[in-house]
Design goal:
Layout (H helix, E strand, L loop, with lengths): L2 H9 L6 E7 L8 E7 L4 E5 L11 H4 L15 E2 L8 E2 L2 H19 L4 E5 L5 H14 L5 E3 L6 H11 L17 E5 L3 H4 L4 H9 L3 E5 L12 E3 L6 H12 L3 H9 L3 E2 L1 H7 L5 H8 L3 H13 L3 E5 L1 H4 L4 H14 L9 E4 L6 H4 L8 E2 L3 E2 L3 H11 L13 H7 L8 E5 L3 H4 L3 H9 L3 E6 L11 E4 L8 E4 L5 E4 L12 H12 L9 H12 L11 H5 L31 E2 L18 E6 L15 H6 L4 E5 H6 L7 E5 L4 E9 L6 E5 L28 E7 L1
Parallel strand pairs: 6-7, 6-16, 8-9, 8-12, 9-10, 11-21, 12-13, 16-17, 17-18, 22-26, 23-25
Antiparallel strand pairs: 1-2, 2-3, 4-5, 4-18, 14-15, 19-20, 22-27, 24-25, 24-27
Helix pairs in contact: 3-20, 4-20, 4-21, 5-14, 8-11, 8-12, 8-14
């Protein structure tokens, strides 16, 4: 429906008082600008708003986001039970806060501070992410915190920090894409996962640019491409290394990279490629040598160029190395720091960028500071008004944390904010079993998610339009979601929940409940760090002014659209990181002859907790499916819609067959938005990248059969 039609529908009833509030979408990391309209009878509608990062409308999820607010299935009072075998009973906030705090104190007296763990989410605002890290470390005195961004951005973050010294997912504004002569996506499908971004690709195409997509599937993004490359799942690195070796055969590129005093490690990079050739790359990946040469030629001759990675190459046991291989390629071509060129990675969750900057990660303090750094520890301890000796060191990354739950020396309690690991974590049956072993599971959510259904306590929290807070989108652009209206009476903001729990546990600590107050503390905590927010004014954000971090009050730098334009962060140098191709941990064989890969689709988001409540989105994508190549389906006697059993070395899932020619013959694809026996993450592996601890979601050996 057009914005005019929406306005007309509202204005047909003149007795209604209409209010419009400028805010941002509750879904992906584009954080598209929108108006949320409401009236005194509770009617809600959405309109697109012309403001960065998008100026070209909304996707279906954004248009329908208002329907979540008044959904009858949302939780409106705290729920609790002594045992998970009992039914939930409604209770008061006063009682449940007291009950949780007493339970936490008892467990910590018996088992130590680390017996209580916290798991956060990449959809939480910057203020919530900061407060959650502070609560865990200062109030609980526990090292045990991580978040679901470990499943999303950790490999790209690791690679960016290793090579460039700074993890900002995109080192350029989105609009630069429209001006690039060549754009290459490795393992990303923005036409489905963040559709408004396609407008930049259309502008790039109209100006004569070329688009390359590397993906085992012919996705909607691949259909826009001038060149689509279909490697076997898990073999992208072989293609990247081959392209890099080819571009280094160009004399000008070789000499530039060798003599560039801003690049460190050139000789090691060249030596690492000695034993790698095009024929080997073709054998490993299945990508013809001719296509590899074509990409190298485009990068050499059609600049400026932008290279973008996504979960397709990052959610792997070698995801960090694969991203480092891409960054190496961009560095030797002098793309990073040049206008309309660069390397970027598409952050998935709404605050996937900000969520990993401010203390939710197991090894980080606010501002991207290492939890081992004595200066950072001293500074943060001073701001939090605790002794430095009280500040824990690093805890366990997500999968190790989940594996430790309920064990002799592991956490006995878990508090979950903004995440649904029963659906989103790999080998999820195992995760479920570990959650069942806990003495205390507390989940803060606005719907009864699959994880909440296993909890002892469920805390009803406000939705995106019922609270204010800052988000940092995939460009590093800091945005303000503004409160449009109050939540139901007994529904509270997570900042309120954290503050009240902290007060019950340690009344000497101060935890502000207002986002604007937390933001001021966050600015102080990040001043002079890599992710410096100190120069950002909350009032400026309220007025819609653009601010991209780093933003320094000390250096009077308000916004940094291109952080590597003048220098890199490793003593003003970038590091070329030699990487070597290794096979994925999981291989296909006669028993499991197919590659299973997973991902998102257009009409749903994450674990489906939100989008499964919206009738229009469910009608568009009503059931879980598994994509199977049409030829393979015919050979196995499978027809469209047949129920299919998908089995890996871990578990079995059931989904409806979707026959298509848009996928490799040896590959099947399953979206991860459904629960129960339809969970794709029943099948996925807990094998981890050794550097980022990212699970290998994108590759499982599988077999299929009709049910």
């Amino acid at each position: 429906m057009s914005s005019n039609k929406i306005s007309n529908c509202i204005n047909q009833r003149p007795n209604l008082v209409q209010k419009s509030v400028a805010t941002h979408c509750p879904y992906c990391a584009l954080q598209c600008a929108m108006w949320i309209n409401s009236d005194n009878e509770g009617n809600i509608s959405i309109q697109p708003r012309s403001n960065p990062p998008q100026q070209f409308g909304l996707c279906q999820k954004g248009w329908t986001a208002g329907e979540l607010i008044n959904d009858p299935s949302r939780i409106k009072k705290p729920l609790m039970r002594e045992s998970v075998k009992d039914d939930f009973q409604e209770t008061s906030w006063e009682y449940v806060i007291d009950w949780i705090s007493k339970k936490i104190k008892d467990l910590q007296i018996k088992h130590g501070n680390n017996s209580v763990a916290v798991f956060g989410g990449g959809g939480l605002s910057n203020e919530k992410a900061y407060s959650l890290g502070k609560f865990t470390r200062a109030c609980l005195g526990s090292a045990m915190i991580d978040y679901n961004g470990r499943f999303c951005m950790s490999s790209a973050a690791t690679a960016l920090n290793r090579s460039l010294g700074l993890d900002r997912g995109m080192s350029f504004p989105l609009d630069d894409i429209a001006h690039a002569k060549t754009v290459i996506f490795f393992g990303s499908n923005p036409a489905e996962t963040m559709p408004p971004m396609v407008s930049y690709l259309n502008k790039q195409k109209q100006s004569g640019g070329s688009l390359v997509v590397v993906d085992p599937r012919i996705t909607p993004t691949a259909k826009l491409a001038h060149l689509h490359i279909q490697p076997r799942p898990g073999t992208d690195m072989a293609v990247i290394l081959a392209i890099t070796k080819l571009v280094l055969e160009d004399v000008d590129v070789f000499n530039y990279a060798k003599e560039n005093d801003k690049l460190e490690g050139f000789d090691d990079l060249v030596n690492s490629l000695d034993c790698f050739d095009l024929i080997l790359a073709e054998e490993i990946s299945g990508v013809p040598v001719s296509q590899i040469k074509q990409v190298a030629k485009m990068l050499l001759e059609q600049k400026p160029a932008i290279v973008i990675s996504g979960r397709g190459i990052e959610q792997s046991s070698k995801g960090s190395d694969s991203v480092n291989a891409l960054i190496n390629l961009c560095l030797v071509l002098d793309l990073i720091g040049s206008r309309y060129s660069g390397f970027g990675t598409l952050t998935g969750q709404g605050n996937g960028q900000g969520g990993r900057e401010h203390g939710q990660k197991s090894d980080q303090l606010p501002g991207y500071c290492s939890i081992k750094d004595p200066k950072a520890r001293s500074k943060i301890a001073s701001i939090w008004k605790i002794e430095q000796s009280e500040l824990p060191y690093e805890g366990l990354p997500a999968i190790q944390l989940f594996d430790a739950l309920g064990k002799d020396k592991g956490p006995k309690a878990l508090l979950v904010f903004g995440s649904n690991p029963v659906v989103s974590a790999p080998f999820s049956n195992k995760i479920q079993q570990n959650l069942d072993s806990l003495d205390l599971l507390v989940v803060a959510d606005f719907f009864l998610s699959e994880t909440a259904k296993q909890a002892h306590v469920v805390l009803p929290v406000a939705q995106w339009a019922e609270e204010s807070g800052t988000m940092t989108n995939l460009e590093g652009r800091v945005l303000l979601r503004q409160k449009a209206f109050d939540p139901p009476t007994d529904v509270k903001d997570e900042l309120w929940v954290i503050s009240r729990l902290a007060k019950a546990l340690n009344p000497n600590l101060v935890f502000p409940e207002e986002a604007s107050e937390v933001f001021e503390e966050l600015k102080l905590a990040t001043q002079d760090t890599k992710a410096d927010y100190s120069g950002i004014s909350y009032k400026d954000l309220e007025q819609g002014k653009e601010r991209m971090w780093p933003s320094s009050s000390r250096n009077k730098i308000l916004s940094t659209p291109r952080p590597f334009e003048d220098k890199f962060s490793h003593e003003q140098k970038a590091k070329l990181i030699p990487v070597f191709y290794v096979s994925s941990k999981e291989i296909i064989d006669k028993d499991y002859p197919l590659y299973l890969t997973t991902g998102r689709i257009l009409n749903h988001y994450q674990s489906g907790t939100q989008t499964s409540k919206i009738a229009k989105l469910v009608a568009a994508s009503p059931q879980c499916f598994v994509e199977i190549h049409s030829d393979l389906g015919r050979e196995m006697g499978i027809q469209n819609g047949d129920l299919i059993r998908i089995q890996t070395r871990r578990d079995i899932a059931i989904a409806n067959a979707k026959l298509t020619n848009n996928i490799r013959y040896d590959t099947i694809f399953m979206p991860f938005h459904w629960s129960g026996i339809k969970r794709a993450n029943l099948l996925t592996s807990q094998v981890l990248d050794p550097l980022s601890f990212m699970p290998e979601f994108k590759l499982s050996a599988a077999r299929i059969e009709k049910v």
